[in-house]
Design brief:
- It is a single chain.
- The chain is mainly α.
- The chain folds into 2 domains: 41 residues; 34 residues.
- The protein is built from 4 helices and 2 strands, in the order H-H-H-E-E-H.
- Strands 1-2 form a two-stranded antiparallel sheet.
- Strand 1 and strand 2 form a beta hairpin.
- Helix 1 crosses helix 3.
- The longest helix has 34 residues.
- The termini are far apart.
Length: 94
């Protein structure tokens, strides 16, 4: 027979993530709250926050969005460099 999944509020999940970020181990959190470590790891990836030097706080989701955007910009930069090299070659021939 299957077990019924427990639904946790976002606030509760964020509190567990905060405890994890403040040094509680997965084993401690699992023992105290009965939440398996894989669930805590998933919540951490979703709700973890990164504090920047200027006190800006980014969520893990925002960090992932910024990583994707950075990869796009790097790809565009490579394309532009190649295009500039092609234009430079054609301008030297004239």
């Amino acid at each position: 027979m299957g077990t019924k999944a427990t639904r946790y509020s976002d606030d509760f999940r964020k509190q567990i993530v905060m405890l994890r970020q403040n040094g509680k181990t997965y084993a401690q959190l699992e023992a105290e709250y009965g939440i398996v470590s894989s669930t805590i790891a998933e919540w951490t990836r979703k709700y973890a926050e990164v504090r920047m030097p200027d006190d800006t706080v980014l969520t893990a989701k925002e960090v992932e969005r910024l990583r994707r955007r950075n990869a796009e910009l790097e790809e565009e930069n490579i394309i532009l460099k190649k295009a500039a090299a092609i234009f430079l070659q054609h301008s030297k021939k004239d």
